């Protein structure tokens, strides 16, 4: 059974009432995809294709007007209780979205862990484990986000996401603001976490090179719809949709995927 199922989901922005005209925008149009445990599925498309709206619908930040989101086979309610929200976490392009700039990384982690029921001592110990898990030194716990590099902040953001022991991570352009060399370390971290923890990862990006390097499967979105999907190798080697072919032709040489 897939861990994350997005089934016939549509997202519309603006008013859609009977007496309104021209004010609604269909951002996601009946999209379906699944993510298994330990699998990374990429969603790729140009700006405005609907991929970020799909990500937000998956984690409950916006409510789809049609379709279902299922977690481990369970249909998720439109208004999600805290216990469900803890099972799905989002990693954003800008890690500042998840890290309070006035607190140290350690304080951010400890506060989150304590809301989950840990006492302060256990939370501090767990924070040390989390920061080590994402490849940061323990000194990062005493640092405020603004004093860290972009790559370090994104790793700290991933540590925060892991604090709730989620089953699903939705990553929305998490490496697009990073230098290429730093991107590689974050991508390798996500791959290692998916495999070692059995996480289901939905990875949103506009970068086809990142998709080829990281993702097991890929869905190509255009104007709110999935126009092509399948294993990454198959889609890249024998694309069938004209839009996919256009995307692939628009980039220079794509380096081969590495582990």
TrEMBL record:
Gene Ontology MF term list: ATP binding; ATP hydrolysis activity
ABC transporter domain: residues covered: 4-248
PROSITE patterns named in the record: ABC_TRANSPORTER_1 (PS00211), ABC_TRANSPORTER_2 (PS50893)
InterPro entries referenced in this protein's UniProt entry, alphabetically: AAA+_ATPase, ABC_transp_ATP-bind, ABC_transporter-like_ATP-bd, ABC_transporter-like_CS, P-loop_NTPase
GO BP: transmembrane transport
Top-level taxon in the UniProt lineage: Bacteria
UniProt entry keywords in alphabetical sequence: ATP-binding, Nucleotide-binding, Transport
Family under the similarity heading: Belongs to the ABC transporter superfamily.
Name of the protein: ABC transporter ATP-binding protein
Protein species of origin: Amycolatopsis panacis
């Amino acid at each position: 059974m897939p861990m994350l199922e997005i089934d016939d989901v549509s997202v519309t922005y603006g008013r859609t009432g009977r007496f309104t005209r021209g004010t609604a925008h269909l951002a996601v149009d009946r999209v379906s995809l699944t993510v298994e445990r330990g699998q990374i599925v990429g969603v790729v498309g140009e700006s405005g294709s609907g991929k970020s709206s799909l990500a937000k619908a998956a984690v409950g930040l916006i409510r789809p007007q049609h379709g279902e989101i299922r977690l481990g086979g369970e249909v998720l309610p439109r208004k999600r209780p805290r216990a469900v929200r803890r099972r799905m976490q989002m990693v954003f392009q800008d890690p500042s979205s998840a890290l309070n700039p006035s607190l140290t990384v350690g304080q951010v982690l400890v506060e989150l862990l304590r809301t989950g029921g840990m006492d302060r001592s256990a939370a501090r110990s767990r924070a040390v484990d989390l920061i080590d898990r994402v490849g940061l030194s323990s000194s990062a716990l005493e640092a405020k986000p603004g004093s860290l590099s972009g790559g370090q902040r994104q790793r700290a953001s991933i540590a925060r996401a892991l604090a709730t022991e989620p089953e699903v991570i939705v990553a929305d352009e998490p490496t697009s603001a990073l230098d290429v060399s730093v991107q590689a370390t974050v991508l390798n971290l996500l791959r290692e976490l998916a495999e070692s923890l059995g996480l289901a990862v939905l990875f949103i990006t506009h970068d086809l090179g990142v998709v080829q390097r990281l993702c097991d499967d890929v869905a190509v979105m255009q104007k709110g719809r999935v126009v092509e999907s399948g294993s990454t190798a198959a889609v890249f080697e024998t694309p069938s949709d004209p839009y996919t072919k256009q995307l692939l032709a628009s980039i220079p040489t794509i380096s081969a995927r590495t582990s």
